Amino acid sequence: MPVRTRITQALAPLAGPARALIGLAAAALGGVLILAPLSVQQVAIVTGLGLALIGSAALLFPTLDGVTRAAARALGIVFVVVGGILALWPTAGAPWLAFLVGAALVCSGIFQVVQVVRNGGDSRATSIIGALASVVFGIVAFSWPVLTLTVFRLGTGAFLVFFGLQIVFFALTKRAPGPRAPRSALARWSRTAGAALALVLAVALALGTGWILGGVPLPQPGRFYAAPDSVPTEPGQLLRTERLSEGVPHGAEAWRMLYTTTNADGTAALSSGTIIAPKQRGSDPLPLLSIAHGTTGVAAKCAPSLSATPFSDGAGAALEQMVTEHGWVAVTSDYIGLGTAGTHPYLVGEAEARNVLDAARAAHQFTELTLTSNTVVWGHSQGGQGALWTGQLAAEYAPEIGIAGVAAFAPAANLYGLAEVNKNEATGKTVSAYIAATWNELFPELDLAAELTPGSSRGVEKIQDLCFNGQDVLAAILRGTQVPNQIFPDSVLAGDFGRLLREQTPTGPFPAPVLVAQGLADPLVRPEQQREWVADRCAADAELEYREYAGLDHLSLVAADSPLTTELVTWTLDRWAGTPTRGTCTAWTTDESSAEVPSTS
C-alpha cells in the first residue's frame, strides 16, 4: 500500500473533529466581525484568519457546486496565502483590505464567466449576468473603500457564521457538501431574476458613484487669466479688468481683475480677483473693504471670480449691505493658483496676506473708482487666517495701505491644532488633502507625497481636483470620508511639517482693532482652540474683541440670518468712524435669542 494512502487512512478518524473545529472557529470569527468594536488593523487580522479558514475548508471539501476539484484546491491555496499574509501583516489596514474586496469581486466575476464558457450548463445566461454584476460591484468598491470595508465586515461576518455552522453540521453528520440537486424551473427563473436585479443595482451604483464623487463641470480659466506679454515686476499693478454680470447683487456693479503680486518667498506672481462697488456713487473717495476668502479648493477652476456666485463666500449678506446700503467698495483676491497659473499657497498665511494687500493696491489703480487709502479687512475660515496675516503684514509689506480694522470669522488660526484634532474627521481629511497637494509643491523638502499614510495618496489625488463650493463640496467631503486613515502620520505632524504648520499661526502685532467671531457648534474650528489662540493674543496686549455664538457652526456663523451679519456691519462702520471698541480682549457670547452677555469662558 502506498505511503500516501496509509497516511490518509491513519488521519481519517481525525477529519471529522478537524472539520468541526474549523467550522466553530469560522463561526466565532464571524461573530467577532459583527459584534466587536474593532480597529482597522483588528478587522484585517480577523478577516485574514477567516479567509485562511475558508481556504482550508476548500482544501478539505474540494467538491463544490459548479467548481472543479482542481479549481477549488487552487482557490483554497489562494485564500490560505492571502488570509495568512493579511493576518500576519495587518499594518496595511483598510486600504489593502478594501482593494482586496474590489479585486476579489472583479476576479470572481471573471472566473465565473470562464467556468461557464468552459463547462456550459443550463444556467449559463444567469451565471454570466451574475458575474457581470460582481465585476461592476467590484469596480464600485474601489471608489468607496471605507464603506466597502464596513459592508464587507458585516457581510463576511454573517457568511463566516453561516459557513462555520454548515461545516460543523457536515462534520457531525459525517457528510460532505456535494453537488446540489437540479433546480426547479421556478428556482431557475428566480435565480435569473435575482442576478438581473443585482446587475441593475450594480450599474445604478456605478452611475451614482460617478455623479456624486465626480463633482460638477466648472468653467476653466480662459484668456483673461493668462499672463500678458509684458508683466511689471512691481507687485500690486493692475493688468486688466472685465465686467461681471452673474451673481452681482442688485444695486451694485462688479468686475474681475488681473494684477501682479508675490509669493511668500518674494518671487513675482499673478493673481486674479474681483471688485464690487455701488452703482450710485459720488465724487468722494469710497471706503474700501478687503476680503480674504475662505476655502474654495486648490485647482485653478476654483477661483471665486469664476464662480456663478462670486460674492457669496463668508459673510456675503453683510458684504452686500456694506456695498449697496453704505456705499463701500469691496475687493477680493482669488489668491495665486486660483484662476491664474501656479500652485495655490493654501493656508500659507504670508502668501495670502500679500495677495490681499496687492489686490487693494490694484483696486486703487482702477480708473472707474476713487478709493480711500485705508481699508477694513474681513475673512472667514482660511480667509480668517488670511485676514489676520494681512493685518500683521500690512505695515511691512504695504505701508501705504492703512488698516482700520480686521474681522476674522472662525479663523483657521491654529493650523497644527486643527490638523491634530480633525485628522480623522471627513472635513479634516479634505482640508489635509488640499494641504498635501499644495504643500508638496510649495515645500518640496518635506516630500509629503512620500510621507502620506497608506491608502491616502489616491484620495488626495481625487480631492485636489474638486472645488469646495456647490455640489463639489459634497463630492470633496464624501471623498474625505473614504480615505481610510488620517492623511498625515503622527510622525510627520511631529516633524518639520508640524513646525511649518505652527509657523502659519498669526501672532501680531496688529495695527488696528481685531474682531474674532466663533460659533460654539463649529466642528471644524473648535471653540476651545480659538479661545486658546485669543488668550495668547490677549496676553500679548492685542486690541482684540472675541465674540462667541451659541448654536452656530462653521457655515451658519456667516449665514444671512446669523446675528453676526448685523453686528459685523455695525462693527465695521464703527472702525471707520473711529468709535472706541467695547473693550480690549473682552469676550462676549451671543445666544440664539441675540441677547449678549459677558462670556464666562
TrEMBL record:
One Pfam family matching this protein: LIP
UniProt keyword Protease, yes or no: no
Matches recorded under Gene3D superfamilies: alpha/beta hydrolase
Chain segments annotated as transmembrane: 20-38, 44-64, 71-90, 96-114, 126-145, 151-172, 193-213
Keyword list, A-Z: Membrane, Transmembrane, Transmembrane helix
The protein, known as: Lipase
Lineage of origin: Bacteria, Bacillati, Actinomycetota, Actinomycetes, Micrococcales
